[in-house]
Amino acid sequence: MASAKHVPRKRFGQHFLHDRDIIARIVAAIDPSPGDRLVEIGPGLGALTWPLLARHGSLDVIEIDRDAIATLQAAPRPPGELRIHEGDVLHFDFAALRGQDPARLRIVGNLPYNISTPLLFKLIEVREHIEDMHFMLQKEVVDRMAAGAGDDAYGRLSVMLAPWVEVQPLFDIGPGAFKPPPKVMSTYVRLRPRTGPAFALAQPERFAAIVAAAFGQRRKTLRNSLKAHVTEAGFAQAGIDPGLRAEVLSPAQFAALANTAAVSG
Fold it and tell me: Roughly what angle, to the nearest 10 degrees, separates helices 49-56 and 20-30?
């Protein structure tokens, strides 16, 4: 529960979880096993930290808020090994944390809205070190992560995650589970890195550039939004109608455009 001595900080996007039933449901969804390497992002005041430590006995946590760290260090805790890493998770070295451990990292956390998308992209870059991820995010973000072509929520985030991770929304969480209550619904989601790309992707950087350009001008046809990236011959080679708009193309079709040799400019 939130301590009276610690005021949640808006600049860190802090909303502390306090609902015990939700916490128990989260721990059950994570279901840690002996030998797992658990890492919690943003432990805050320990609402999830202590149940995970009691269940598993070993936990790394990454926290940017020094006051929250002091609260964690002073709090009564269950037996086990808690390793606290102070710093900004966007600049954290997950590969170094894993080191030579044969067990890949299992990452959990309640992610602030302001870092959720850049953090997801960062974690994709180090996915070979990650077994799975369990995150609490704003519902609208998870909707975008899990959306398919043609869905209202479908966009850049949907397409960029598709080659690398499986997205499984688990359950929604209302504002009352937090202090202070956020103004939005949250969703708990499981992400599992794929063993390889879900489809042929010869040029990941070009794929990212094409997806960004297409959704950056999503009201335009692909012919117009991608004119700096794909020629008419490229569209033909990929089998894509350039008169379509971004929201109707599947991630695999974006990959086909990225894989074509016909590049504008």
Answer: 40
Query: Are 50 and 78 contacting, i.e. CB atoms less than 8 angstroms apart?
Result: yes
Prediction pTM value: 0.89
8 A C-beta contact, residue 21 and residue 27:
no
Strands (E), the chain: 16-17, 37-41, 58-63, 81-86, 105-110, 130-138, 165-173, 178-179, 186-193
By C-alpha distance, which of 9, 81, 83 is closest to 44?
A: 9
User: Each residue of 202-241: pLDDT tens digit?
Assistant: 889 999 999 999 999 989 999 999 999 999 999 999 999 9
Distance CA 265, CA 249 (A): 23
For residues 261 and 245, what is the distance between their CA atoms, to the nearest angstrom?
Answer: 21
Side chain identity at residue 157, one-letter code: L
Quickly name the fold that domain 10-193 has.
Rossmann fold (3.40.50)
Q: What is the pLDDT of residue 40?
A: 98
Tens-digit pLDDT profile for residues 35-64: 999 999 999 889 999 999 999 999 999 999
DSSP summary character for residue 63: E
Beta strands in 123-228 (DSSP E): 130-138, 165-173, 178-179, 186-193
For tokens 């070993």, the residue is: 58
Name the residue type at position 96.
Answer: A
Q: Where are the domains of the chain?
A: 10-193, 204-259
Cα–Cα distance measured from residue 196 to residue 188, given in angstroms and rounded to the nearest whole number = 25
Looking at 1.20.120.450, 1.10.8.100, 2.120.10.30, 3.30.70.270, the CATH number of the domain 204-259 comes to 1.10.8.100
Residue 65: partners with Cβ closer than 8 Å, 6 or more residues away: 9, 12, 14, 44
